Amino acid sequence: MQILPSPEESITCSGPHYDRAKEAKEFDETKAGVKGLIDSGMAKVPRLFIHPPQNLRDLSSDTAGSATGLKVPIIDMMGCQDSRLRRDVVDDLCRASETWGFFQIINHGIPVDVMDGVLEAVKQFHEQPEGVKGEWYSRDDARKFRYYSNGDLFWSKAATWKDTLLFDFPFGEPDREAVPLLFRETVFEYEKHVEKLKGSLSELLSEALGLDSGYLGDIECMDSKRIVSHYYPTCPEPELTLGTINHSDATYLTLLLQNHNGGLQVRHQNQWVDVSPVPGAILVIIGDFMQLVSNDKFKSVEHRVLARRAGPRVSVLCFLFPGETRKSKPYGPIKELLDENNPPMYRETSFTEYFGYYLSSGNGLNGESVLPHFRVSEPK
Ligand code: OGA
Ligand code: NI
């Protein structure tokens, strides 16, 4: 989950001939993001965005899993309201959550025009004149809506090739006035459908864990929603940078909508597998916290986005995590999943503690899982 910066992360790319902080500040002050660099005719990736070689391993799609025939599972949810077919959907979700932690769902109930509407609105936002969108540019986390490029710009080792919009959906009625006109219908409409889908997935995943369908709902682990949308402009030198660095999400669950321009990859069986866009599909990503409460039954998984010459890529992510009143309460491996053969693999922790560690260690944003920090038993 690339939504908040890590204050402790040190800046490593500064040196006597290169003032990284100055370049970052100048870039930030344009309020025009990476899209602004492209619009100004920039034909080279600025140094601020150039990643160290260890981040750029296996970038070519030729070495990604497409060559090995690995394919992210696609699960048809059509049958999930039918008591006979529901079992099959639950089994498919269970297998995909145990093996990949990452799968596409179709016939999930969100109308295509609602999905297209939100993707198009995001694209239009970024493609309007710089002065207009610049008014929304902010790093103030208290804002319900903001536009920025690289939440960790001032302390990451290298910036990534994308611009971002963030919508916060706390409890209660969302504040329509807080977002640009473009989003007042589209994003709120999408959010309504996402809320329903979340309810279905919460029940189906509870059943997949062998629990009552209301279990995950009752423990209120997915009551907060953050919609984050990334716009990845075309990139003149994609071999030097990344759209999103490899990471796993700190959430319980992430729901991801993407347009037809690919670039997303997931790590499976030690290789990067291209996630080909499937029209009408929503991607479901198991987050670190779901792995923790499921006691390693479900797997959170590393993923990343390549910078590409083709584009722009637009993604709309819905991050799901505990609501305000539950954020600081402890969660641990679900008791019903434990017995003498299945001891708890993790200690209890709150989402606030977990996410704080994810950010402060810098690990979450550096491609290293932070789950091991909370582990108390070694995997079998
Ligand atoms: C994220 C993420 C992927 C994408 O923001 O956590 O994985 O397609 N984004 O933008
Ligand atoms: Ni992610």
What does this structure look like?
This protein has helices spanning 20-30, 33-39, 83-99, 112-127, 130-134, 181-184, 186-208, 215-218, 288-293, 351-360, and strands at residues 74-76, 102-106, 145-148, 163-169, 224-232, 242-247, 253-258, 264-268, 271-274, 282-286, 303-306, 313-321, 330-331, 349-350. With 380 residues, it is α+β, with helices and mostly antiparallel strands. The protein has a single domain (22-374), classed as Sandwich (Jelly Rolls). Helix 3 crosses helix 7 and helix 4 (112-127) crosses helix 7. The structure holds N-oxalylglycine and nickel (II) ion. Residues 1, 247, 249, 303 line the site of nickel (II) ion (NI). N-oxalylglycine (OGA) binds next to strand 5, strand 7, strand 11 and strand 12.
Order of helices and strands: HHEHEHHEEHHHEEEEEEHEEEEH
- Evaluate the radius of gyration: 20 Å
**DSSP strand (E) fraction?**
15-25%
Major sheet summary line: 8 strands, mixed
Helix fraction, binned, reads 25-40%
Spell out the CATH superfamily: B-lactam Antibiotic, Isopenicillin N Synthase, Chain
Name of the top-level CATH class: Mainly Beta
User: How many strand units?
Assistant: 14
CATH-defined topology: Jelly Rolls
Q: Per CATH, which architecture?
A: Sandwich
The bound ligands are: N-oxalylglycine, nickel (II) ion
